[in-house]
Design brief:
alpha/beta, TIM Barrel, eight-stranded parallel barrel, three-stranded antiparallel sheet, 11 helices, 13 strands, about 40% helix
Length: about 350
């Protein structure tokens, strides 16, 4: 029996956000004492090159677990091929009122309405200075809740300026359902203007620093065929470095009658799996190989990871799966993709 299967029943007796905070603190301390790696499975190499970056394996940690980059070294011991932290905003913000995180164990799902709670980009940068991790590190970018939507690009550009050259890649999050009007940025004119501003700044920073930093975009699973076609055309036009598909869903299909099933927020885990895979397949067809896809949403087994790759993703990442399955899911997914 692995240690997580012993800890999970105890953690699931606690309020989800309390359990999360205790787990993150516990991981940091366990690693400092050398008590983490001996209990974790050895993950084999399965190299993959994407966005000009060399990944030791194609299985990553999705954003949301480590918002402030406080436990990167501990999470690296899990064997992830890449780690994405955040979402981070230019200024610190508390997020939405508690409770804001809910487990739905019968559906292997989570609903969250955290609202980009984080300590701000300067705190994240300070934490990065103390990490020993030398692998592929991404940062998920969000706008502050009180930044008007028409000024959203300003927040993303601030973050791009501060993080450029300090991490492996960044992800522009325009798909969280928990920041008012954020998903409006997925619309035609708004998305066109946002991508133009970001790619222009990326080019300017590349010239200044003599090296580039890839910019991915994270999208929602709640898109129809017309939206997918329009967004794909803009991703190709602006030569986006990658698309992460997908974020959480607003749908409650399959969880309506479960405890907490009607809570507001984004639903992740098993109920979003098919919806996410459908969006990946549709974007794979629409992007015609010009923009690579990173698959996320409902990965709780190696089979689920393989399904995302078969649909057109080149890398995968998960977060909710880690809550329900523990660190052994990393090796299971890499083994399945071998």
């Amino acid at each position: 029996m692995n240690p997580y299967s012993l800890a999970k029943p105890l953690l699931f007796k606690l309020d989800p956000e309390t359990a999360h905070n205790l787990t993150m603190a516990g991981l940091r301390h366990a690693r400092q004492l050398g008590l983490l790696k001996p209990f974790l499975p050895k993950v084999p190499d399965l190299p993959k090159r994407l966005m000009g970056l060399d990944f030791p394996n194609p299985v990553g940690l999705a954003a949301g677990l480590d918002k402030n980059g406080e436990a990167i070294d501990a999470l690296a011991d899990f064997g992830f091929g890449f780690i994405e932290v955040g979402a981070v905003t230019p200024r610190p913000q508390p997020g939405n009122p508690k409770p804001r995180l809910f487990r739905l164990p019968a559906a292997q799902a989570i609903i969250n309405r955290m609202g980009f709670n984080n300590l701000g980009v300067d705190n994240l940068l300070a934490n990065l200075e103390h990490t020993a991790y030398k692998g592929i590190l991404g940062v998920n970018l969000g706008k502050n809740f009180d930044t008007p939507i028409e000024k959203a690009a300003d927040d993303y550009l601030i973050l791009l300026d501060k993080l450029f050259g300090k991490v492996s890649f960044v992800t522009v999050n325009i798909s969280s359902p928990n920041t008012k009007n954020l998903r409006a940025l997925q619309g035609g004119d708004e998305l066109d203007a946002l991508l133009a501003a970001i790619k222009a700044r990326q080019a300017a920073l590349t010239d200044r620093h003599g090296k580039t930093m890839p910019v991915a975009v994270k999208i929602a699973p709640d898109l129809d065929d017309r939206q997918i076609a329009d967004m794909a055309a803009l991703f190709r036009k602006h030569r986006v470095d990658a698309v992460i598909a997908t974020n959480t869903t607003l749908s409650r299909e399959g969880v309506e009658k479960l405890p907490h099933g009607e809570e507001a927020g984004g639903l992740s885990g098993m109920p979003v799996r098919e919806k996410s895979t459908r969006v990946i397949a549709a974007f794979h067809a629409a992007l015609a190989g010009e923009v690579p896809l990173i698959g996320a949403g409902g990965i709780l087994s190696g089979t689920d990871a393989r399904e995302k790759i078969s649909a057109g993703a080149e890398l995968v990442q998960f977060y909710t799966g880690l809550i329900y399955r523990g660190p052994s899911l990393v090796k299971e997914c890499v083994d399945a993709l071998r």
